[in-house]
Write a structure and sequence with these properties.
Elements: H1 12-29, H2 39-63, H3 89-104, H4 108-137, H5 139-147
Length: 152
């Protein structure tokens, strides 16, 4: 933890994007093509739903007047909206968008890489944020963490 921020490994959207591109390249050049029936339609539905969920989470953070950027200080523990169901609605949204785009691109290799993405996000971002928030907000965050699951 450095200064008043969690010290995440990298910006979470870039982590997801890097693995998505790697999975797409693997699917395109190293693995035989896999056609998922209705993959484009299913992927599009997932992306639209996840975007709506992500915008809802973002609006709750804006309403609470806390920073969305993990390189800036948190100013509040947000527990309204989707934060009632998951402590990480933005990362959950990015995960579903990742799967949706992978399906739309027929990049099954990207889906195969998803557990690695989740591990990188969990250890390189989420756990660092949790340690930071626990230190900054103490009992308030501990109680929230006890009530609400990390992912779902």
């Amino acid at each position: 933890m450095t200064a008043d921020r969690p010290g995440v490994l990298a910006p979470p959207p870039l982590i997801f994007l890097a693995f998505l591109v790697a999975g797409w390249l693997l699917a395109r050049y190293a693995l035989p093509p896999v056609d998922v029936p209705y993959g484009v339609v299913i992927g599009a539905v997932l992306v639209v739903g996840a975007l709506a969920f992500g915008f809802w989470a973002r609006s709750e953070m804006v309403r609470a007047r806390t920073n969305i950027n993990p390189y800036k200080p948190a100013t509040a523990v947000v527990s309204a909206g989707p934060f009632r169901f998951t402590r990480n609605p933005l990362y959950l949204s990015m995960t579903v968008i990742y799967v949706g785009v992978a399906l739309m691109l027929h990049a099954v290799a990207a889906v195969i890489l998803l557990p690695v993405v989740i591990l990188v996000i969990t250890f390189g971002v989420v756990r660092r944020e949790e340690t930071y928030l626990e230190g900054k907000f103490g009992v308030q965050y501990s109680e929230y963490r006890r009530r609400v699951r990390r992912w779902l």
